[in-house]
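Hi U.,

Before I forget, here's the chain from the pilot set. I'm dumping it here mostly so it's searchable later in email.
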Amino acid sequence: MNVHKYPPSLLYMCATIAPALIFLAVFEKTSNRLTKVISVYGRVPFLYYLLHFFVIHLTSAIVFFLKGHTFAEGENGAFGIKFFLYSDGFSLPVVYGVGITIVIALYPVCKRFSEYKKQKTYWWLSYL
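Structure:
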C-alpha cells in the first residue's frame, strides 16, 4: 500500500480508521470494568488532553534535573525550555511505562471532573 500520513491519503485514512470502526462495532455493547474505566476518559477528553501535556512536561523536567542537568543546558523552544537533550534517552519499555503511569495518574482527576460535570449544568463544561 502506498499511504501518506501528511497530507493524509485515502488509503491511510482507510487503514487507520477502519480497524477502529470495526473494533467499536464489535465491542460497543460490552460492559465490564475496563470499559467503565475507559469511558471516564471519553467523558472528559479535552480535560485529559490538556492535563497530560502539563504532566508530561513536568515529568520531563523532573527527570532532566534528577540526571544532573541545569537550566542552562535546556534547549530553548517555541514554548519555553525543553527539558531534554538528544544525547539522553530511554528505552521504549521505559517510555511506554511512563506513558501508562501518566494515564493512570490522571484517572482520579478525570473521574472526579466527570462526576462534577454530571452534577453541574454550566454551559462551558460541555467543552471540557
